[in-house]
Amino acid sequence: MNLLADLPPGPLAAERVDALLARPGLRVERIVSTGQASPPGFWYDQAEHELVVLLHGRAELTLDTPDGTVTHRLRAGDWLELPAHCRHRVEATDTPTVWLALFWPT
Predict the structure, then answer these.
(1) What's this model's pTM, rounded to 2 decimal places?
(2) Which of 35, 46, 81, 84 is the most exposed place for a label (fewest CB within 10 A)?
(3) C-alpha distance from residue 78 to each of 14, 42, 54, 70 (Å)
């Protein structure tokens, strides 16, 4: 298995999410973005913790922190931990951008 195999040749209408592993207390997904971004005004606010690793491409994520919003420009190899209920949004992604996302409960 290869996380960079079977990438779409062009833009998709929505991100592609492949479940790689699901165990009690842990979920691992490969997410392929092809230019997607969060809609204006939309913020993710998840009840579980998330670790994202950017494997390929580039992306911009904005986090809503107690000190204000912070935008992270990610390249291959960069990662972020998003604690549960850390409001965040995707500002931009390349075609393609490949993420590895790990989720676990609080």
Answers:
(1) 0.93
(2) 81
(3) 23, 23, 6, 16
Total domain count, the chain: 1
CATH of the domain at 96: 2.60.120.10
Confidence band, pLDDT 50/70/90 cuts, at residue 1: confident
pLDDT in tens, 23-73: 999 999 999 999 999 999 999 999 999 999 999 999 999 999 999 999 999
DSSP letters of the chain?
--TTSS--SS--SS-EEEEEEEETTEEEEEEEESS--PPTT--B--SSEEEEEEEESEEEEEEEETTEEEEEEEETT-EEEE-TT--EEEEEE-SSEEEEEEEE--
State the residue for tokens 């209408």: 13
Quote the domain boundaries for residue 38: 17-104
